[in-house]
Amino acid sequence: MVYTSDFREGLIFQDEHGQIVEILEYQHHRKSQARAVVRVKLRNLDTGSVIETSYRPEDKFNDVLVEKRPNTYMYSEGGKAMFMDTQTYDQVEVPLSKIGDAARFLTENMEVLGLYLNEKFYNILLPAKVTQTVRYAEPGVKGDSVSNMLKRAELENGVEVKVPLFVNTGDKIVVDTRTSQYVERVTA
Length: 188
Known about the structure:
The chain is mostly beta strands and 188 residues long.
């Protein structure tokens, strides 16, 4: 059994509706005299959708035996992504809709973790951060030095992110795949 006190980011369990979900964010919350609750942002591993809900501290859920194995992303075709298990060399097709928004960050030969439930391939987990090249960045205005100013930039995979003014076209940046937010510029 999984209790709310066991919650941590990345934990996978079966919710009260029988769906397999992964915790993206959680927070224990209590207002003055009100009952404590645990607010949780969950990703449904079947559909890829993200929901926010809250649970009571005494709630308990079914544990799910999850095995994570290294896989390599090969290519996408016809709405499906092809992965290869790097241990057994088995190839598996996964609908892009099941992967969700994370599919935007897939690049050929990218190492991902394959989630296996009861020895059956279920879904993938992308690395938390990936390095991407900026295809286009709006020019920064000289003298615009107000702190925390951001501008739009388009990455090589077509994803738009907000970046600091010093990031230019052609720069390599690190992006958080869970939130699609800029993390840092890569200096080489």
